[in-house]
């Protein structure tokens, strides 16, 4: 079974350290997006990369719309990998929706995890007034999902560059657009619904693993009030504001991302 999991999720393991650092990619992405970060950590950690079922070079025949209709199905992918590799004291690095996926996994099986590093996390994308600003109104979400259904390529070409930001570096937006377009549209549509319609606010208080929140500037997917909400409701969290703009600092500002991760992990080891 373990071999099947590793093949299913296209798991790659390398590095010279013993403590695992498990990188979980965001929506519409794959493990290749971490290539700017992993060289900074592979001498000290055991790097684990993977693709969610339906993404990258995963086994797409393993895709089950019932399992992956909610984020819990993706969290089970993470737990399956932890079990297959017998991981302990894992540093989980999650981008965007993977922040909540990792949180769900760590609540269910905390024994696998030591620290969570959450890049651009959001527990709820929809505004819920009064009191919660997620960045999107229901009409915004409906429009995005409708465009996905009717014009997938147009949706990718308009949304991906906006998510990436950094318009002065169009190559970054093109890479994200190409990543979106390389994925099965039906799987992407279902993942988008599971992501955009999720509400994990009530789950935050159950996480007992320490977590670093990396909050970008000018992030249309996870604006600043979202990061602050996360920090207020996660019991053992640290919030760091980034100079990086957009939603993908591991690609647009890898040096700053690495520095903040290093600083956090150094202090965590001392504590």
TrEMBL record:
- Report if keyword Hydrolase is assigned: yes
* InterPro entries registered for this protein in UniProt: AB_hydrolase_1 (IPR000073), AB_hydrolase_fold (IPR029058)
Instruction: Identify the keywords attached in UniProt to this record, alphabetized.
Output: Hydrolase
Its protein name is Alpha/beta hydrolase
Keyword ATP-binding among record annotations: no
Give this protein's Gene Ontology molecular function annotations.
hydrolase activity
Q: Which residues form the AB hydrolase-1 domain?
A: 20-253
Which domain of life does the protein's organism represent?
Answer: Bacteria
Family recorded in the similarity comment: Belongs to the AB hydrolase superfamily.
What Pfam families does its record include? Answer: Abhydrolase_1
UniProt cross-references to SUPFAM superfamilies, sorted A to Z: alpha/beta-Hydrolases (SSF53474)
- PANTHER family reported for this sequence: ESTERASE-RELATED (PTHR43039)
């Amino acid at each position: 079974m373990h071999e099947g999991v590793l093949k299913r999720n296209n798991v790659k393991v390398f590095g010279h350290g013993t403590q695992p650092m498990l990188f979980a990619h965001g929506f519409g992405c794959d493990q290749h997006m971490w290539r700017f970060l992993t060289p900074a950590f592979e001498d000290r950690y055991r790097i684990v990369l993977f693709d969610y079922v339906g993404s990258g070079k995963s086994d797409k025949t393993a895709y089950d719309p019932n399992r992956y209709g909610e984020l819990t199905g993706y969290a089970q992918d993470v737990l399956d990998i932890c079990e297959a590799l017998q991981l302990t004291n894992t540093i989980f690095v999650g981008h965007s929706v993977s922040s909540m996926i990792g949180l769900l996994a760590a609540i269910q099986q905390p024994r696998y995890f030591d620290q969570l590093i959450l890049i651009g996390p959001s527990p709820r994308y929809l505004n819920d007034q009064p009191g919660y600003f997620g960045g999107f109104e229901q009409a915004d979400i409906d429009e995005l999902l409708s465009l996905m259904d009717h014009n997938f390529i147009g949706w990718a070409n308009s949304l991906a560059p906006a998510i990436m930001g950094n318009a002065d570096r169009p190559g970054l937006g093109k890479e994200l657009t190409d990543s979106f377009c390389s994925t099965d549209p039906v799987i992407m549509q279902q993942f988008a619904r599971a992501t955009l319609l999720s509400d994990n606010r009530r789950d935050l208080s159950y996480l007992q693993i320490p977590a670093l929140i990396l909050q970008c500037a000018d992030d249309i997917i996870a604006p600043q009030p979202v990061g602050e909400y996360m920090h207020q409701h996660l019991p053992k969290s640290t919030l760091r504001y980034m100079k990086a703009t957009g939603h993908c600092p591991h690609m647009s500002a890898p040096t700053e991302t690495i520095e903040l991760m290093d600083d956090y992990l150094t202090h965590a080891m001392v504590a």
